[in-house]
């Protein structure tokens, strides 16, 4: 049997966007004791359509909320043969506290992103620390806190580009971007996307195009969300 795998929190590096380094002790928090449970939550928004003479009206999907992950972490510096006892704040909980602040995080002007990693699961969650509740339960005679429980709630976060790659954007009722190829016109793009050449006007309005013939290869268009014919 190999060594016990510890749950760890990787913290976004101060000088780089979306960069992590597990070997950097200032940007990595290792659980002194593994949690005995993880809780996850996710919600989808459905809006009922106003309609008469129906017991169960049709529902329309209007979006989703980011998922959340709840975990309780326990830290203890009292159970150590060394004196004096070290503060659990200095060694552990201060790092968690900084995940909710903008200080010491470079020029981001926001709290850092986090990745949770544990054993064979590897990185199983990426997000931000939305809420932190700290309870200190043991102090030395000098008033040094040496035991604490941290109740953490993380909210899921994903880059827009990564999220779009996971979606099925072939549907014409989803807004998207289009890179113009040689020989294409607004009418041919509308026919391919919406099944109706007359929808070229919607594309022109969405992109501020006054002359529909002023289109060249490589230009990027926003295709608005429309129902296909």
**What's the shape?**
elongated
Spatial gap, N to C terminus: 62 Å
Number of strands: 11
Whole-number tally of structural domains: 2
What is the N-to-C order of secondary-structure elements (H for helix, E for strand)? EEEEEEHEEEHEHHE
CATH topology of the largest domain, anyone?
Answer: Elongation Factor Tu (Ef-tu), domain 3
Q: C-alpha Rg, in Å? A: 26 Å
By CATH reckoning, the class of the largest domain would read Mainly Beta
Percent range for helical residues?
A: 10-25%
Pick out the low-confidence regions. none
Can you put this structure into words, describing what you see?
The protein contains 4 helices and 11 strands. By secondary structure, it is α+β, with helices and mostly antiparallel strands. The chain folds into 2 domains: 8-164, Beta Barrel (Elongation Factor Tu (Ef-tu), domain 3); 168-223, LysM domain (Membrane-bound Lytic Murein Transglycosylase D, Chain A), CATH 3.10.350. Strands 2-1-7-8-9-6-3 form a 7-stranded antiparallel sheet, covered by helices on one side. A two-stranded antiparallel ribbon has the order 4-5. It starts with 7 loop residues before the first strand and ends in a 6-residue tail after the last strand. The model has no long low-confidence stretch (mean pLDDT 86).
């Amino acid at each position: 049997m190999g060594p016990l795998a510890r749950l760890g929190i990787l913290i976004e590096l101060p000088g780089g966007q979306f960069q992590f380094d597990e070997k950097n002790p200032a940007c990595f928090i290792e659980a002194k004791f593994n949690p005995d449970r993880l809780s996850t939550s996710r919600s989808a928004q459905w809006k009922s359509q106003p309609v008469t003479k129906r017991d169960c009206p049709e529902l329309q999907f209007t979006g989703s909320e980011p998922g959340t992950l709840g975990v309780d972490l326990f830290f203890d510096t009292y159970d150590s043969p060394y004196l004096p006892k070290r503060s659990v704040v200095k060694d552990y909980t201060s790092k968690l506290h900084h995940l909710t602040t903008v200080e010491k995080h470079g020029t981001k002007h926001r709290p850092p992103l986090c990745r949770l990693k544990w054993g064979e699961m590897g990185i199983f969650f990426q997000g931000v620390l939305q809420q932190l509740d700290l309870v200190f339960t043991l102090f030395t005679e000098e008033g040094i806190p040496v035991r604490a429980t941290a109740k953490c709630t993380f909210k899921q976060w994903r880059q827009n580009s990564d999220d779009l790659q996971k979606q099925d954007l072939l549907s014409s009722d989803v807004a998207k971007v289009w890179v113009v190829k040689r020989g294409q016109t607004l009418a041919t793009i509308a026919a391919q996307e919406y099944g109706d050449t007359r929808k070229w006007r919607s594309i022109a309005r969405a992109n501020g195009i006054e002359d529909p013939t002023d289109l060249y290869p490589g230009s990027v268009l926003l295709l608005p969300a429309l129902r296909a014919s």
